[in-house]
Structures are given as structure tokens and as C-alpha cells.
Amino acid sequence: MDKTICRYCKEEINKDAKKCPHCHGWQVKWGLDLQNPKALIIYLLFLLFIIMPAFIVVMTNLERYWRSSKTETNISETSYKVIEISTSSLDTYKCGNSKCIAISGVIENKSNSAWKDLYFHAELFNKHDQMIDNFSNHDYDIIVPANASTTFRITESAIKDLSEYSKHKVSIRWARKDR
Question: Is the pLDDT of residue 80 over 70?
């Protein structure tokens, strides 16, 4: 039977032994040797000066990629409005047993990018300019081509009597660039 020397107690042990029968020291060749202080310090330095900086570089680049590929934008907070509603009209009607509101109009795109997944916000006023209702609507079907215009229509159930609705204001809160 082949014999070898234990790495820790220097006693003779079986060559295939994973653990010394005398000192119970693990006979690790390539793994993390926690019983050897020099090896432990080398492993920690390797982790500290090689692996951690590489991890930080990779994560920083992933964050930069994620930020550059993020296509959602808050239209209402941009100083130059790239998508605006140029005209709109309010329509109230009975839909079955309910009362409904519809706002339709034209969206103008002043940018070189197409936009999709529009999020509309509508405020509804009475004849005294008091806001009596509001609603938001997410439309996944509309795509506004670059430097062009398109029509839209958003609907919602009315909470007031239909005769109370006289004015409205509708805006696009955010949209996603179409790739």
C-alpha cells in the first residue's frame, strides 16, 4: 500500500486518505485549507484583491448597461415634451346599465423615436371648473411613430351624472420607447 506524509503532523498515512487518522487534518490539494494559516491568508488576499475588484467591475458595467437600456421615461417630468396631446374631445354616453366617459384625440410625436405603452391621465371638470373625477388608463396597443401623429381613445365608467361633465384635461404621464 502506498504511503505519504501528513501535511500537518508529518506522520505516515495512506496515500489515498482524505483525512489524517492521527491529527484529523484534511489532506486537501487544491481546495481551501483552513488549518494552514499561511494558505488561509493567501486565499483571503486573493479574494480581497482579485475576486472582489473583478466583481465590482462586472457589477458596475451591468448597472451602466441596465441604465442605458432602460427605455421607460416619465414624459411629464421632461423639459421638452416629446409626446403631446394636440387635440382631444370629451364624450359621455350610456353603455349598457352604466354611464361611460370617452376621451379621444390626436397625439403628436416630436421626437425621432417611436413610443408605445402609453399611460394616460385624465381630469374631468364641471361647468364651474371644479374637478369632479379623474382616471388613468394604460394603453398597450397604441404606437406613436417617430415625428408623426396618431389617434387615441380612452374610456372609463362615470361616477357622476353625465350632465355634470363639461371640461377635461388629458395628459400622457409616461411611455416606453419602441425599439
Answer: no
How large is the C-alpha radius of gyration of the chain? 34
The CATH architecture of the domain made up of 74-177 is Sandwich (2.60)
Given this model, what pLDDT does residue 73 score? 52
Residue (of 167, 141, 169, 158) closest to 76 by Cα position? 169
CA count, 13 A, side-chain hemisphere, 47: 7
C-beta of residue 151 within 8 angstroms of C-beta of residue 51: no
Cell of 88: 382631444
Contact between residue 91 and residue 104 where contact means Cβ atoms under 8 Å apart: yes
Amino acid at 120: F
C-alpha cell at 103: 376621451
Domain limits, the chain:
3-69, 74-177
Q: Which three cell numbers stand for residue 154?
A: 380612452
pLDDT in tens, 16-73: 888 889 988 888 776 556 666 777 788 788 888 888 888 888 888 776 666 655 545 5
Which residues does residue 125 pair with via DSSP β-bridges, in sequence order? Answer: 131, 167
